[in-house]
Design brief:
The complex is a heterotrimer. Chain A contains 15 helices and no strands. By secondary structure, chain A is mostly helical. In chain B, 68% of the residues lie in helices and 2% in strands. Chain B contains 15 helices and 2 strands. The relative contact order of chain B is 0.22. Chain C is of the alpha/beta class. Chain C is 35% helix and 21% strand. Chain C contains 10 helices and 17 strands. Chain C is globular. Classes of the chains: A mainly alpha, B mainly alpha, C alpha/beta. Chains in contact: A-B, A-C, B-C.
Amino acid sequence: MSEATSETAFEAVGGQHSGSARAWIARRAEGVVLPLAALFAGMAAFSIFLLVIGKSPPELFELMWRGGFSSWFSIQNTLSRTTPLLLAGLCVALPARLGLAVIGGEGAIVLGGVATAAIGEALGGSGLPGPLGIGVMAIAGMAVGALWIGGVGALRHYRAVNETISSLLLAYIAIAIMNHLVEGPLRDPASLNKPSTQPLEAAYRIGSIPGTDVHWGLAVGVVACILCWVLIEKTSWGFAARIAGGNMRAAQIQGLPVGSLIVGFCAIAGACAGLGGTLEVAAVHGAANASLAAGYGYTGILVAFLARQNPLAIIPVAILLGGIDASGGLIQRRMHLPDATVLVLQGMIFIAILFSDTFYGRFKAFNPELWTEKA
Amino acid sequence: MAGSDIGLWGVPLAILGGAIRVSTPFIYVSLGETITERSGRINLGLEGILVFGAMTAYAVAYMTSSPWLGVLAASGAGACFGLFHGWICKFPKVNDIAIGIAMMLFGTGFAFFLGKAFIQPLAPHLPALPFGFWSDIPQVRAALDVNVLFLIGVGLAVILWWAFRNTRIGLIIRVVGDSADAARAMGVDPDRVRLLSTAAGSALAAIGGGYLSLYYPGSWNESISSGQGLMAVALVIFSRWNPLGCLAAAILFGGAGSLGPALQSVGLTHGYYLFYAAPYVLTLAIMIATSSPGRTLSGAPGELSITK
Amino acid sequence: MIQRPACNRRQFLKTSTAAAALGVLGTGSAPAATATLGFIYVGPKDDYGYNQAHAEGAAALKGMAGITVIEEEKVPETVDALKTMESMINIEGTGLLFPTSFGYFDPFMLQAATKYPKIQFRHCGGLWTDKNPKNAGSYFGYIGTCQYLNGIVAGHMTKSKKLGFVAAKPIPQVLLNINSFLLGARTVDPAVTCQVIFTGEWSLAVREAEATNALLDQGADVVTCHVDSPKVVVQTAAGRGAYVCGYHANQAPLAPEKYLTGAEWNWANVYKLYATKFLGGETLPNFTRGGLADGFVKMSPLGKAVSEPARKQFEAKMAEMLKGNYAIIKGPLKDNKGSEVVAGGTAYVETAIELENMNYLVEGVIGATS
C-alpha cells in the first residue's frame, strides 16, 4: 500500500529511474505513439459514422489535411487559431498540477481583453511609443486575469470554496460585466451595429510575424508555454506545487506554503488567460466587444487535459485542435455537412485520446522497468 | 389574453413563475449528477446529454405525436450516454472530468447533427396542471401553470433524499463513493455501481433536456441550452450532494434567472446585463457565505476526483 | 456625414451602368461564364430566422447557370471569419463573398478586402463608406418599413393597447424596428404603447421565453421581436393567447391562429441581382439598400385572425409605401425621455442615412437603451 503511494508520489514529481538511452527513448516514445494511435482510432470511429451517413472518409481526411496542414495558407490558418488555445490551456493546466480543476479561464480572457481596451483608450494620444503601450496593455490584461483567477484560488484556500464551481460562476459574471461595459460606459458611439470599445491606435496594434499572416501572439503563447513548463519542472516552486498536487495534506504537514502556492499558481494561470484576452484585442479585433467570449476558455480545458497538464504538450495539442477547426470550414463547404459534424469528430478523437491514457505503462515495449523481468 | 395591469407585482410573479418554469431542467440534471457524484464519478458531459435529450425528446414526440414517448426516448438515450461514460471511466488513469468534456462536445455535436431535420416541425408539448385556477388574473394563472415534470422532479428529490439515507441501494452508492475499498470489502463492485449510477444520472439529465424542448421554451433549435448542464453540475456541489439541497438550489437559480427580464419590464433597465448575472452572483455569494476553511467540503464523496 | 446617392434598385442600375461606362466605380472584369459565390453565416442555417433567411436567398441561386454556391455556417465573429473568407478565396476560388453578420465587417472583411483587391466582398448590414476598400460594399433591406406595417395590424388587433417587443441588443437597426412598430400602431390609435425588453444576446432561447412572459405579464397582447431566431418568442406568446407578428422569415406555421403578419427578408432578389451582375462582368455597387418597392423585403401573408379594418389599412399603407419616398420617422418627434429628436418639418425617408445612426426610442416606447 505505502509502496504504491510513495511510488505515485515519486512519479508525480517526475522521479526517474536510472536507465539507458534506449529506456529514455522508450519512455518518451510512449508519449508520442499512444496519442497518435488514439488519434487514428478516433478517426477510424468517425469514418464508420461517415459511412453510415453516406459520406466518404477518404474525402474527409483529404480535406482535413488540405484545410489544416497541407499548404502554407492552411498552416497559417491553423496557427492563427492555435494562439488563444495555448494561453487558455495554460490557465487550466497550471492549477491542475496543484490538483485544482479551474474551468473559468473564459472569464479571465474576457476581462483581460476589456482591461486592455480600456488602457489602450486611456493611452490614446498620449504619445507613448508603440511597444511600451502594448507592454502596458499586456500588464493590464495579465493583472486583471491574475486577480480574477487568483481570487478563485484565494476562495479555495481561505474559504474552502470549490474552485470548479467558483471559476465557472465567475466566468459567467465576467462575461456579463464585459457586455455591460462594452455596450455602456466604454462604448464607442461610432461602433453602431456591433457595440465595441474605442479602436486601439495603430501604434498599439500587434502585427503579423513578417512574411506570414500569423500575429506575434503565437510567439507569445509558445514562450508562455515554455516558461510555464520551466516553472513547473525546473523551479523549486514548481516542485513544491507538484508535491502539493500529489497530496495536499502531506504537503501541508511538510510545511510547504500551500496557500501561497495555490493563490500564486492560480494568479499566474489567470495572467496567462488575461494575456490571451490582450492578444485578441490588440492583434485580432483592435477593440473589445462581445466576440471576446468565443469559448476559447472552455476549449482550453480540453487542450489542457489532452496534454495531460504538461505545458509543452499543450503546443502540439493546440495545433491539432487549430487544424481541426481550420479544416472544419472546408469540410462543411465541400461535403455539405453541417458544422455539427466537426464537433462529433472532435468528440470522438478526444474520447479516444483520453481513453488511451489507460494504456500508459501497460505495454512492455514502452516500459523499461518490465524489461529486466524475464520470466 | 390581455391582462389587468399588475405593475410591480410583475416582479415577484415572474420570480415565482421562473422558479417553477426555469428550474425544472436544473432539478433533473442536478439530481442526476448527485446520484453520479455520490457514487464517486463526476460527469461533466451532462451539458451534451441535456442537448441530446432535448433533441431526442422533440424528434420522437414529433414522430409519434406523444410528448411522453419523447421523454421516455430521451431518458433511454441519456442512459446510453451514461453507460458509455461509466464504462470508459472505469479504466485506470482515465480522467472523468476530461471524458465528460469530450462527451459534452460529442453529445452536442451529435444532437445538432441529427436535429437539423427537426428544427422546422412542431412537436406536441408536455401538459401542465393549472394550479392557478382560483385566480381571475391571467398573469397569476400563467405563472402557476405547473408542468408535470416539475412535480415529478420535486417528488424525485424527496425520494432520492430518503433513499440515500434509508435504503440499501442508497447506502451502496454512498459507500462506493466514499471508499472503493470499503465497498469491495462489502462485496460490491464499485465499477458496476458507478456505471449504473452514471447511466441513471444521465437519463435524468436527458429528461431535463426533454423538458426544455417539449415545454419551456418548448422548441428545438441550436440555441436551446444556455449552459444549464454545466451549471447544474455546479449546483450539485453547491448543495453539498443533498437532493433536497439540489431542489432548493435549482428553484433559487430559476427564480433569480427571471429577475432580469422582469426588472426590465417594470422599468429597471440600467445595467440589464448585470441583472442577467444575478443567478450566478447569488449562487457564488451563498457559496462563499456557507463555506468555511474549518470544515472542508463536508459530505463530499471521498472518491470524487475534484475533491481529493 | 458623407453624402451618398440613395440607392433604390432603379437608381443603382442607373448609377452603376453609367459609372461603368465612365470607369469610375472601379474596374469591371471581363464577363465570366462561371463564378463561385461564398456565403458565411454566423449561426445555423436553419434557425427559422436571420440565418435561414440568408440561406434561403442563397438557395435561390443554386439553380442559376454558371453559379456555384458555397456556404459555411456557424462562423464566429473572430479571426475564424477572416480565415474562412481567405479559405474560400484560396481553395475554392470564390470571386464574390457575402459575410452576413454585423461583426464580420470590421476588421475582418475590411482586412480581407484590402488583402485581396481582385475579389469582391459584400457585407450584410454594414455601413460602407468611401474610406473603405472599393472591392467591398454593403447591402441591407429597409425592414423597418415592414415593422411599421406589422405595427398597423398590431394596432388594430390589440385590446389592451399595449404591445410587446423582445429585442436582442439596442443597436440602430433594432431601435429603428422598435420605433417603426410603435409608430405604425399609433397611426391606428395614438394611445398605444410598446414595451421593449432587451435580452442582451442574439440567440438565447430561455431568456427570450422569459422576456416574452414578462411582457405578457405587463399586459402586452401583441408581440413581435428582433432576435436571430423568433421561433421561441412566437410560440411562447401564442401559447399564452397573444397575437404575434413575425420577423426575418414566415413563422405562421408555428402559430396559425395567432400569427398576424410578419416582416420578412427577400434576399433571393438581392442575391440574384448581385449574381447576375457579377456573371456579366459588371461592376457591383458598393452601397446597396432596398425596401418593399425593390423587393428586398416583403410581408408575410395576413393571418386568418386579422380583422377587416386592419387588412384595409394595411393594404392602403402598403400601396402608399410602394410609390416610394415614404417617411416613417418624421418630425416633430420626441423620444421617450421627452427630448425632441426630429424637428418639425423634417422627414426621413427610408433611404435617409441618418436612420443608420438611430440611438433613441420614440415616445410611447416603454424601456430604455441602457
